[in-house]
Specification:
The chain is an alpha/beta fold. It is built from 16 helices and 38 strands. The protein folds into 3 domains: about 10-320, 4-Layer Sandwich (Purple Acid Phosphatase, chain A, domain 2); about 325-540, 5'-nucleotidase,  domain 2; about 555-675, no CATH class. The strands form 12 sheets. The chain has a 6-stranded mixed β-sheet, with helices on one face. The protein has a 5-stranded mixed β-sheet with strand order 5-4-1-14-15, covered by helices on one side. A 5-stranded mixed β-sheet has the order 24-18-28-21-29. A hairpin with a 2-residue loop joins β26 (about 455-460) and β27. The longest helix has 18 residues, at about 305-325.
């Protein structure tokens, strides 16, 4: 009996131990502490108040096993964050207070966490009840780490090592705020030595990477380092077990590279990554990772935590009041919806404010949100926050004519044309990287290859030469070369007073009412007309009729008959109808017949008479119909006209159905057709 008990006890001591750790992660929350959209003034999905409910539920289910993490960009990105940093500073920062209430265990800074300046970030670090970690952020000149390279957290018997990395692009985008204060090392160099150090004190190694998995950088990496390199962790000799990916705003439910598990929750706390890690310890050996399972938990339908909401209520109410304040008036609605397809007054106003403030010849910038705009009434601060959501300051640079053209060629990459000539949007280029240049005249010719699309470039009615020199206002983000605009990254800066662009727009509104008719307009377009129409269709914009003027346009109404087959009793009624329609139009008309008037069979030569205009026609076929004239631009090709079924005449295109009557020659002037009823 004793021998059996001894054998059983020996078996138990030799059986591997097991443990379970649950990693819960967010990234790119961008100020969404509450479940509220302050621009729409209504409840919104996401937010840390909903994350708190998810975390509480997991902690109840897995007591003592949960680790809550964030991979950066928490402190900037919406009205709530802007108010806390610029207007109503509270102690602690309500965003960090929300993180404390959720119970975060560690976080790493993202590039946007530096947008308010280093002092504001340090205030947040001091408010946090949890450690921040980053292995590639160093203070200058001491070259000491800004925060710990990693921390080891205990969950039962398991030592969970957590490190973090911040994309070096922050030195490009926020260089003016970091220069002389912070050095950002290359992630790859810091990662290898950090993972090796962590292995000696950690059973489970987790990396918070505010850097995408892979892909081209949005800036010139010379002397800086690549933007998105988290995927390289899987190729290193010392590797992490789990990587929480941030920065790229992608979504990764559960992916494996090499032996490393990658997850990435949706931004804005729209989802939470939950990673279950089973740990095993074979007899006489150290703890090892047995199995990893990742999932994403949506927060859209999760009830916000009442406790967190109550604590954030004063800050929440203050932000709602702030964004609802009136900042100006507009005498007519000015939407931004058409801003990436055609001249748009509200976009011109924003650019002209920057141009005038900087005293520059030109101004460049994108349309950030096509849903934005100002109403034809009171303008509230929330309208400006939607029009200009980023925390950029105004600068101006001195550029050459060659650099100006290169800048516009980069922007024109936004449109993609396939081998069949079909036009679409380049999905690898965000809309906020499609810049317009105010103060220059240019065409974006989508018939041309990338790099040669900008035509007829002129400034002040003078064609731009490569050696010309201009000053151009733009935001601090773009001036850094972000978005692929490296041609301006090293251009001489001639204006930089640290002025926030959104505040400059607000100041301009305080001086006068916004009138779209008094805005200095841009002068650009997409050509040819078919390409413009295709882009309009992409954005749901209806093409407006070409304007009629005495100088270059003629309105022509076309009437057509066919197959009368000797029915003279119909002639009087037809003549009366045509006369009535012609009088109503008060324009030149063409009266066409497609044959079959006498014998009852289609003839090869129809008759035509014209009033107030001339033309040559051919006819044939049977049936009765009326065609609408197409548009023929002076000196250019014709757009297809639209003919009614049954032998109608068209300009520049045959009618649908039988007949095929068409205008063969007409003066090379702009022609507008109207559909007439037979």
């Amino acid at each position: 009996m004793l021998s059996l008990l001894f054998a059983a006890s020996l078996f138990v001591t030799q059986a591997p131990d097991t443990a379970h750790v649950v990693l819960v992660a967010t990234t790119d929350v961008h100020g969404r502490a509450t479940a509220w959209d302050y621009l729409a003034d209504r409840a919104a999905p996401g937010g840390l108040t909903r994350v708190a409910t998810v975390v509480d539920s997991l902690r109840r289910r897995f007591p003592g096993q949960v680790v809550v993490l964030d991979a950066g960009d928490m402190l900037q990105g919406n009205a709530f964050a802007a108010y806390q940093a610029r207007q109503g500073r509270r102690q602690p920062n309500p965003i960090v207070e929300a993180m404390n209430l959720v119970g975060y265990d560690a976080a790493t800074p993202g590039n946007h966490d530096f947008d308010w300046g280093l002092p504001e970030l340090e205030r947040a670090l001091a408010d946090a009840a949890f450690p921040y970690v980053s292995a590639n952020l160093f203070r200058v000149p001491s070259d000491s780490l800004l925060v710990s390279a990693f921390r080891v957290l205990r969950r039962g018997p398991i030592r969970v090592g957590v490190t973090g990395f911040t994309t070096p692009g922050v030195t490009v985008w926020d260089g003016d705020r970091l220069r002389g204060r912070i050095r950002v090392g290359r992630i790859e160099a810091a990662a290898g030595r950090t993972f090796a150090a962590m292995r000696g004190s950690s059973d489970l190694v987790v990396a918070l990477a505010h850097s995408g998995v892979a892909g081209p950088s949005s800036y010139d990496t010379t002397g800086v380092g690549a933007e998105d390199v988290a995927g390289t962790f899987a190729t290193m000799k010392a590797r992490p077990d789990v990587v929480i990916v941030g920065h790229s705003h992608d979504e990764i439910r559960d992916s494996t590279l090499g032996e490393v598990r990658y997850v990435q929750p949706k931004p804005y706390a729209a989802s939470v990554a939950v990673v279950h890690v089973d740990m095993v310890r074979p007899p006489g050996r150290e703890w090892q990772v047995g199995r990893i399972r990742g999932e994403l938990v949506s927060t859209a339908e999760v009830t916000p935590s009442a406790v967190v909401e109550q604590r954030l209520r004063p800050a929440h109410d203050a932000v709602r009041e702030w964004v609802g304040e009136a900042v100006g008036m507009a005498i007519a609605p000015m939407p931004a919806a058409t801003g990436r397809a055609m001249i748009t007054p509200v976009v011109d106003w924003m650019l002209d404010v920057q141009r005038r403030r900087a005293g520059a010849t030109l101004a460049a910038g994108p349309v950030f949100d096509l849903r934005a705009g100002v109403p034809g009434d009171t303008i509230h601060r929330r309208d400006l926050l939607r029009l200009y959501p980023y925390e950029n300051t105004l600068r101006a640079v001195k550029i050459s004519g060659a650099q100006l053209k290169d800048y516009l060629e980069r922007s024109a990459r936004y449109f993609r044309v396939d081998a069949a000539g079909r036009i679409s949007i380049n999905d690898s280029m965000p809309g906020y990287d499609f810049d317009l240049v105010h103060g220059a005249r240019y065409d974006i010719d989508l018939r041309q290859p990338i790099g040669s699309r900008i035509r007829n470039l002129a400034v002040g009615d003078r064609p731009v030469a490569p050696s010309d020199s201009f000053t151009m206002a733009l935001d601090s983000h773009r001036q850094s070369g972000a978005g692929g605009y490296s041609m301006v990254a090293h251009a001489p800066v001639v204006y930089d007073r640290g002025e926030w662009i959104r505040e400059l727009l607000e100041e301009d509104l305080a001086r006068h009412r916004l009138d779209p008719l008094h805005v200095v307009t841009s002068n650009w377009r997409i050509v040819p007309a078919m390409a413009e129409s295709a882009v309009f269709k992409i954005y749901g914009i209806e093409s407006e009729p070409l304007p009629v003027s005495r100088g270059d346009s003629l309105l022509l109404r076309v009437f057509g008959t066919a197959g009368l087959h000797g029915r003279l009793e119909s002639v009087g009624a037809l003549a009366h109808a045509m006369d009535s329609l012609a009088a109503r139009c008060e324009c030149p008309t063409l009266r066409l017949d497609g044959g079959g008037a006498v014998t009852g069979r289609g003839a090869g030569g129809g008759a035509a008479t014209g009033r107030g205009g001339t033309g040559t026609v051919t006819a044939g076929g049977s049936g009765m119909g009326v065609g609408a004239a197409g548009r023929t631009a002076a000196g250019g090709g014709a757009r297809p006209g639209r003919g009614a079924a049954g032998g109608g005449a068209t300009l520049g295109g045959a009618a649908a159905g039988g007949g095929g009557s068409r205008i063969i020659s007409l003066r090379q002037i702009r022609v507008l057709g109207r559909l007439a009823l037979s």
